[in-house]
Amino acid sequence: MKHKKYTIEDVKSFAVNCHTGQMYGGKPYVTHLDDVYNTAKGYTDDKDILSACYLHDVLEDTNCSYKTLVKNFGKNVAEIVYAVTDEMGRDRKERKEKTYPKIAKNDKAITLKACDRLANIMASYNCSLWNWEKYNVKKYNMYKEEHKVFCEQLNLSNKSKLTVHCDLFKELDFHFS
């Protein structure tokens, strides 16, 4: 199936439409999508990864289907999004245990997931002070607790085979050392 040509603006518009009405930390969901995109832009200019930044939660949090992603943005983008989409599980730990191996098989998905994690960590710093105890500390501590397993499971280290993964590891590690 041949997908149509698209721009990053087309992808963003599609994602915003999919996430209509959803919020992220009290802000429109597009705030999170922009944060992930802008984080990734500092590490790569790969259009598939940058597109997937806007789409990374559509399979998990909306009615969008894998088939729709393939039709609109191609199989490469759809596969990245599929890889980072959480599998079913009884709790967060089980969902991540099932999802990380899927991500680890796709280098572009590793890049996206690391950028998503960085954006989430940065959002935990940037929340307003009134919300710090309720949101920031809880989220930050959750990511800190998961950090070692996250990096191990996604093969993120100073010895990663891709320079971008080494750079992302250093940035992630900086926030928890």
What is the CA–CA distance across the termini? 46 Å
> Uncertain spans, ≥5 residues at pLDDT below 50?
none
Order of helices and strands: HEEHHHHHHHHH
Corresponding CATH superfamily: Hypothetical protein af1432
Please identify the top-level CATH class.
Answer: Mainly Alpha
Give helix % range. 55-70%
Describe the structure concisely for a colleague.
This protein has 177 residues and is mostly helical. It is built from 10 helices and 2 strands, in the order H-E-E-H-H-H-H-H-H-H-H-H.
Would you write up a description of this structure?
The chain has 177 residues and is mainly alpha-helical. It has a single domain (8-174), classed as Hypothetical protein af1432 (Orthogonal Bundle), CATH 1.10.3210.10. The chain is built from ten helices and two strands, in the order H-E-E-H-H-H-H-H-H-H-H-H. It has helices spanning 8-18, 30-41, 47-55, 58-61, 66-73, 75-84, 92-104, 107-126, 132-153, 163-174; strands at residues 23-24, 27-28. A two-stranded antiparallel ribbon has the order 1-2. The longest helix is centred in the last third of the chain and has 22 residues, at 132-153. The radius of gyration is 16 Å and the shape is globular. 32% of the residues are buried. The mean pLDDT is 93.
